[in-house]
Protein backbone atom coordinates (compact mmCIF):
# COMPACT_ATOMS: atom_id res chain seq x y z
CA UNK A 1 0.00 0.00 0.00
CA UNK A 2 1.39 3.41 -0.92
CA UNK A 3 -0.73 5.63 1.29
CA UNK A 4 -3.66 5.98 -1.08
CA UNK A 5 -7.13 5.72 0.41
CA UNK A 6 -9.68 3.22 -0.79
CA UNK A 7 -12.90 5.12 -1.47
CA UNK A 8 -15.79 4.66 0.92
CA UNK A 9 -17.91 4.11 -2.15
CA UNK A 10 -16.49 0.57 -2.34
CA UNK A 11 -18.77 -0.30 0.57
CA UNK A 12 -22.12 -1.31 -0.92
CA UNK A 13 -25.34 0.64 -0.38
CA UNK A 14 -23.75 3.41 1.68
CA UNK A 15 -26.24 6.05 2.79
CA UNK A 16 -25.32 9.50 4.04
CA UNK A 17 -26.08 8.26 7.54
CA UNK A 18 -23.77 5.25 7.05
CA UNK A 19 -20.92 7.51 5.94
CA UNK A 20 -21.42 9.78 8.94
CA UNK A 21 -21.50 6.80 11.32
CA UNK A 22 -18.41 5.18 9.85
CA UNK A 23 -16.36 8.37 9.70
CA UNK A 24 -17.27 9.12 13.32
CA UNK A 25 -16.11 5.64 14.32
CA UNK A 26 -12.86 6.02 12.39
CA UNK A 27 -12.02 9.28 14.12
CA UNK A 28 -12.91 8.02 17.62
CA UNK A 29 -10.07 5.49 17.69
CA UNK A 30 -11.35 4.05 20.94
CA UNK A 31 -10.76 0.33 20.38
CA UNK A 32 -8.29 -1.68 18.35
CA UNK A 33 -11.06 -3.74 16.74
CA UNK A 34 -14.53 -2.26 16.54
CA UNK A 35 -17.78 -3.47 15.02
CA UNK A 36 -19.85 -0.77 13.32
CA UNK A 37 -23.46 -1.48 12.37
CA UNK A 38 -24.59 0.21 9.15
CA UNK A 39 -27.87 0.12 7.28
CA UNK A 40 -26.82 -2.87 5.13
CA UNK A 41 -25.07 -4.83 7.89
CA UNK A 42 -21.92 -4.80 10.00
CA UNK A 43 -18.37 -3.83 9.09
CA UNK A 44 -15.25 -4.02 11.22
CA UNK A 45 -12.65 -1.36 11.87
CA UNK A 46 -9.21 -2.70 12.62
CA UNK A 47 -6.55 -0.30 13.89
CA UNK A 48 -2.81 -0.90 14.00
CA UNK A 49 -0.08 0.43 16.24
CA UNK A 50 -2.33 0.70 19.28
CA UNK A 51 -0.57 -2.09 21.18
CA UNK A 52 3.01 -2.40 22.35
CA UNK A 53 5.08 -5.24 20.88
CA UNK A 54 5.02 -8.34 23.09
CA UNK A 55 7.81 -8.27 25.65
CA UNK A 56 8.96 -11.74 24.64
CA UNK A 57 9.71 -10.78 21.01
CA UNK A 58 13.37 -10.01 21.75
CA UNK A 59 13.60 -13.17 23.83
CA UNK A 60 12.27 -15.21 20.90
CA UNK A 61 14.92 -13.77 18.61
CA UNK A 62 17.66 -14.50 21.14
CA UNK A 63 16.50 -18.09 21.68
CA UNK A 64 16.26 -18.67 17.93
CA UNK A 65 19.87 -17.58 17.54
CA UNK A 66 21.05 -19.50 20.60
CA UNK A 67 19.53 -22.82 19.55
CA UNK A 68 19.77 -22.30 15.79
CA UNK A 69 16.03 -22.94 15.41
CA UNK A 70 14.30 -20.70 12.85
CA UNK A 71 10.77 -21.56 14.02
CA UNK A 72 11.38 -19.57 17.20
CA UNK A 73 11.84 -16.30 15.31
CA UNK A 74 9.03 -13.72 15.55
CA UNK A 75 7.52 -12.06 12.50
CA UNK A 76 9.37 -8.91 11.40
CA UNK A 77 8.32 -5.89 13.48
CA UNK A 78 6.64 -3.09 11.51
CA UNK A 79 5.16 0.31 12.30
CA UNK A 80 1.40 0.87 12.02
CA UNK A 81 1.49 1.73 8.31
CA UNK A 82 3.65 -1.28 7.61
CA UNK A 83 1.25 -3.55 9.49
CA UNK A 84 -1.71 -2.14 7.57
CA UNK A 85 0.09 -2.69 4.27
CA UNK A 86 1.09 -6.23 5.29
CA UNK A 87 -2.47 -7.21 6.15
CA UNK A 88 -3.81 -5.84 2.86
CA UNK A 89 -1.08 -7.59 0.88
CA UNK A 90 -1.70 -10.92 2.60
CA UNK A 91 -5.47 -10.68 2.18
CA UNK A 92 -4.93 -10.05 -1.53
CA UNK A 93 -2.51 -12.98 -1.78
CA UNK A 94 -4.90 -15.39 -0.10
CA UNK A 95 -7.80 -14.18 -2.24
CA UNK A 96 -5.73 -14.69 -5.39
CA UNK A 97 -5.30 -18.35 -4.36
CA UNK A 98 -9.04 -18.80 -3.94
CA UNK A 99 -9.00 -18.71 -0.13
CA UNK A 100 -12.07 -17.08 1.47
CA UNK A 101 -11.00 -13.86 3.24
CA UNK A 102 -12.66 -10.63 4.38
CA UNK A 103 -12.97 -7.86 1.81
CA UNK A 104 -10.99 -4.68 2.39
CA UNK A 105 -13.62 -1.94 2.07
CA UNK A 106 -11.54 1.05 3.08
CA UNK A 107 -7.94 1.70 4.02
CA UNK A 108 -6.38 4.84 5.41
CA UNK A 109 -3.17 5.28 7.39
CA UNK A 110 -3.27 2.86 10.31
CA UNK A 111 -6.84 1.58 9.92
CA UNK A 112 -8.78 -0.85 7.75
CA UNK A 113 -12.51 -1.31 7.30
CA UNK A 114 -13.26 -4.97 6.61
CA UNK A 115 -16.40 -6.81 5.60
CA UNK A 116 -18.20 -8.93 8.18
CA UNK A 117 -17.51 -12.66 7.80
CA UNK A 118 -19.60 -14.12 10.62
CA UNK A 119 -19.96 -16.73 11.86
CA UNK A 120 -16.47 -17.33 13.17
CA UNK A 121 -15.42 -20.90 13.82
CA UNK A 122 -15.20 -20.08 17.53
CA UNK A 123 -18.85 -19.02 17.56
CA UNK A 124 -19.91 -22.17 15.72
CA UNK A 125 -17.85 -24.37 18.05
CA UNK A 126 -19.42 -22.72 21.10
CA UNK A 127 -22.88 -23.44 19.69
CA UNK A 128 -22.07 -27.09 18.98
CA UNK A 129 -19.94 -27.92 21.99
CA UNK A 130 -22.66 -29.40 24.19
CA UNK A 131 -25.44 -29.94 21.65
CA UNK A 132 -23.55 -31.89 18.96
CA UNK A 133 -20.04 -33.03 19.96
CA UNK A 134 -19.59 -34.98 16.71
CA UNK A 135 -20.32 -31.93 14.56
CA UNK A 136 -18.17 -29.84 16.88
CA UNK A 137 -15.16 -32.07 16.32
CA UNK A 138 -15.88 -32.47 12.60
CA UNK A 139 -15.48 -28.70 12.33
CA UNK A 140 -12.10 -28.91 14.08
CA UNK A 141 -11.03 -31.57 11.58
CA UNK A 142 -12.23 -29.31 8.76
CA UNK A 143 -10.01 -26.54 10.09
CA UNK A 144 -6.98 -28.82 9.99
CA UNK A 145 -7.84 -30.06 6.50
CA UNK A 146 -8.21 -26.56 5.11
CA UNK A 147 -5.01 -25.43 6.82
CA UNK A 148 -3.24 -28.30 5.05
CA UNK A 149 -4.78 -27.22 1.73
CA UNK A 150 -3.59 -23.68 2.41
CA UNK A 151 -0.08 -24.98 3.06
CA UNK A 152 -0.18 -26.96 -0.18
CA UNK A 153 -0.68 -23.66 -2.01
CA UNK A 154 2.53 -22.30 -0.51
CA UNK A 155 0.76 -20.10 2.04
CA UNK A 156 1.03 -19.71 5.81
CA UNK A 157 -1.48 -18.09 8.15
CA UNK A 158 0.88 -17.26 11.01
CA UNK A 159 -1.62 -17.31 13.87
CA UNK A 160 -4.16 -20.07 13.20
CA UNK A 161 -6.83 -19.99 15.89
CA UNK A 162 -10.58 -20.73 15.63
CA UNK A 163 -11.33 -17.06 16.33
CA UNK A 164 -9.32 -16.19 13.19
CA UNK A 165 -11.27 -18.65 11.01
CA UNK A 166 -14.79 -18.29 9.70
CA UNK A 167 -17.34 -20.64 8.20
CA UNK A 168 -17.42 -20.21 4.41
CA UNK A 169 -19.95 -22.60 2.90
CA UNK A 170 -18.64 -26.12 3.44
CA UNK A 171 -15.10 -24.87 4.08
CA UNK A 172 -13.08 -22.51 6.21
CA UNK A 173 -12.13 -18.89 5.56
CA UNK A 174 -9.20 -17.08 7.14
CA UNK A 175 -8.74 -13.61 8.61
CA UNK A 176 -6.35 -11.59 10.82
CA UNK A 177 -3.12 -11.68 8.85
CA UNK A 178 -0.94 -9.66 11.20
CA UNK A 179 1.76 -12.30 11.43
CA UNK A 180 4.12 -13.18 8.58
CA UNK A 181 6.51 -15.81 9.96
CA UNK A 182 7.58 -16.93 6.48
CA UNK A 183 9.37 -13.56 6.21
CA UNK A 184 11.59 -14.58 9.15
CA UNK A 185 12.10 -18.29 8.53
CA UNK A 186 11.82 -20.96 5.82
CA UNK A 187 8.25 -21.54 4.66
CA UNK A 188 8.26 -25.15 5.88
CA UNK A 189 9.12 -24.00 9.41
CA UNK A 190 6.41 -21.34 9.32
CA UNK A 191 3.84 -23.87 8.16
CA UNK A 192 4.96 -26.38 10.80
CA UNK A 193 4.43 -23.73 13.47
CA UNK A 194 0.99 -23.10 11.98
CA UNK A 195 0.01 -26.71 12.57
CA UNK A 196 1.36 -26.74 16.14
CA UNK A 197 -0.45 -23.51 17.00
CA UNK A 198 -3.71 -24.92 15.64
CA UNK A 199 -3.23 -28.11 17.68
CA UNK A 200 -2.79 -26.06 20.85
CA UNK A 201 -6.46 -25.20 20.42
CA UNK A 202 -7.68 -28.36 18.73
CA UNK A 203 -6.47 -30.91 21.27
CA UNK A 204 -7.81 -28.78 24.11
CA UNK A 205 -11.22 -28.25 22.52
CA UNK A 206 -11.87 -31.71 21.06
CA UNK A 207 -14.91 -33.32 22.65
CA UNK A 208 -14.04 -36.80 21.39
CA UNK A 209 -10.45 -36.79 22.53
CA UNK A 210 -7.53 -38.34 20.70
CA UNK A 211 -9.74 -39.72 17.93
CA UNK A 212 -10.37 -36.16 16.78
CA UNK A 213 -6.69 -35.24 17.00
CA UNK A 214 -5.84 -38.31 14.91
CA UNK A 215 -8.42 -37.44 12.24
CA UNK A 216 -7.34 -33.80 12.19
CA UNK A 217 -3.66 -34.63 11.79
CA UNK A 218 -4.45 -37.08 9.03
CA UNK A 219 -6.59 -34.49 7.24
CA UNK A 220 -3.81 -31.90 7.44
CA UNK A 221 -1.11 -34.37 6.42
CA UNK A 222 -3.09 -35.53 3.37
CA UNK A 223 -2.63 -32.10 1.78
CA UNK A 224 0.41 -30.55 3.45
CA UNK A 225 3.84 -30.65 1.77
CA UNK A 226 6.16 -33.47 2.99
CA UNK A 227 8.88 -30.94 3.83
CA UNK A 228 6.49 -29.25 6.24
CA UNK A 229 5.92 -32.48 8.14
CA UNK A 230 9.70 -32.96 8.32
CA UNK A 231 10.08 -29.44 9.71
CA UNK A 232 7.29 -30.20 12.19
CA UNK A 233 9.16 -33.27 13.43
CA UNK A 234 12.27 -31.16 14.06
CA UNK A 235 10.20 -28.59 15.90
CA UNK A 236 8.40 -31.16 18.06
CA UNK A 237 11.66 -32.92 18.87
CA UNK A 238 12.87 -29.68 20.45
CA UNK A 239 9.60 -28.85 22.21
CA UNK A 240 9.24 -32.37 23.58
CA UNK A 241 12.27 -31.71 25.80
CA UNK A 242 10.04 -29.42 27.84
CA UNK A 243 7.20 -31.90 28.40
CA UNK A 244 8.58 -33.38 31.64
CA UNK A 245 9.37 -30.07 33.37
CA UNK A 246 6.01 -28.72 32.23
CA UNK A 247 4.24 -31.68 33.84
CA UNK A 248 6.11 -31.00 37.07
CA UNK A 249 5.04 -27.36 37.01
CA UNK A 250 1.49 -28.49 36.26
CA UNK A 251 1.37 -30.45 39.51
CA UNK A 252 1.58 -27.13 41.32
CA UNK A 253 -0.54 -25.07 38.97
CA UNK A 254 -2.00 -26.32 35.68
CA UNK A 255 -2.98 -23.17 33.81
CA UNK A 256 -4.69 -23.24 30.42
CA UNK A 257 -1.47 -22.49 28.51
CA UNK A 258 0.36 -25.38 30.17
CA UNK A 259 -2.58 -27.70 29.54
CA UNK A 260 -2.65 -26.83 25.84
CA UNK A 261 1.11 -27.20 25.49
CA UNK A 262 1.05 -30.64 27.10
CA UNK A 263 -1.92 -31.88 25.07
CA UNK A 264 -0.73 -30.65 21.67
CA UNK A 265 3.00 -31.30 22.02
CA UNK A 266 2.41 -34.64 23.73
CA UNK A 267 0.11 -35.86 20.97
CA UNK A 268 2.35 -34.66 18.14
CA UNK A 269 5.35 -36.25 19.86
CA UNK A 270 3.60 -39.60 19.82
CA UNK A 271 2.77 -39.22 16.14
CA UNK A 272 6.09 -37.89 14.90
CA UNK A 273 8.71 -39.18 17.33
CA UNK A 274 7.51 -42.61 18.42
CA UNK A 275 9.72 -45.42 17.01
CA UNK A 276 8.23 -47.16 14.02
CA UNK A 277 7.43 -50.86 14.24
CA UNK A 278 10.35 -51.70 11.95
CA UNK A 279 12.71 -49.71 14.13
CA UNK A 280 11.35 -51.29 17.29
CA UNK A 281 11.94 -54.77 15.86
CA UNK A 282 15.64 -53.94 15.53
CA UNK A 283 15.91 -52.85 19.14
CA UNK A 284 18.27 -55.10 21.07
CA UNK A 285 19.84 -56.73 18.01
CA UNK A 286 22.96 -54.68 18.42
CA UNK A 287 23.21 -55.24 22.18
From TrEMBL:
- List the InterPro entries: Kinase-like_dom_sf
Lineage top rank: taxon? Bacteria
Its recorded name reads Serine/threonine protein phosphatase
**What is the scientific name of the source organism?**
Shinella sumterensis
Amino acid sequence: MDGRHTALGNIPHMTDGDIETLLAALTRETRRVERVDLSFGAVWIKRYGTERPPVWTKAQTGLASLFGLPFLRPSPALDSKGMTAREIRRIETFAAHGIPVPQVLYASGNALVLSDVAPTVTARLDALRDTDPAAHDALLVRCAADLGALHAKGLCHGRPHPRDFFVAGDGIGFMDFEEEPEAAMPLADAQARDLWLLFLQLTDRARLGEATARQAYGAWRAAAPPETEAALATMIRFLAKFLSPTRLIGRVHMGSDLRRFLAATGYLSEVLLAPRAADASKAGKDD
